[in-house]
Amino acid sequence: MQGRTAETAMDIVETAKAIEAAGAIGLEIEAMPCEVGRAVDRAVSIFTFSIGAGSAGTCQLLNGYDLLGAFDTFKPKFAK
Question: I need a surface site. Which of 6, 40, 51, 66 has the fewest CB within 10 A?
Answer without folding.
Answer: 6
